[in-house]
UniProtKB/TrEMBL annotation:
This is LIM zinc-binding domain-containing protein. One of its GO terms (biological process) is forebrain neuron development. The keyword Nucleus applies. The keyword Metal-binding applies. PROSITE patterns: LIM_DOMAIN_2. It is found in: Nucleus. Residues 1-56 form the LIM zinc-binding domain. One of its GO terms (cellular component) is nucleus. Gene3D superfamilies: Cysteine Rich Protein (2.10.110.10). The lineage of its organism: Eukaryota, Metazoa, Chordata, Craniata, Vertebrata. InterPro entries: LIM_Homeobox_TF (IPR050453), Znf_LIM (IPR001781). Signal peptide: none annotated.
Length: 78
């Protein structure tokens, strides 16, 4: 490879990036070829910042039972 070709190693979805510019939009860390990344709104994100921007799964609501409901369930299972 010529030195010119080595400058343009990173590419995604038909885009070619100058290797020095292939960096995470959030932390500005330069990414290596073969490293996992995401393209969100045309912005390159490293794996860490992509994961941080993903919505957290909703926690399951806890169910509270009254004493009467517990008695009904207790006798229903017999």
């Amino acid at each position: 490879r010529s030195s010119y070709q080595r400058l343009f190693l990173a590419g995604t979805k038909g885009n070619t990036y100058h290797l020095a510019c292939f960096a995470c939009f959030s932390c500005k860390r330069q990414l290596s070829t073969g490293e996992e990344f995401a393209l969100v709104d045309e912005r390159v994100l490293c794996r860490v910042h992509y994961d941080l921007n993903q919505p957290k799964p909703a926690k399951r609501a806890r169910t509270s039972f009254t004493a009467d409901q517990l008695q009904v369930m207790k006798f229903s299972s017999i």
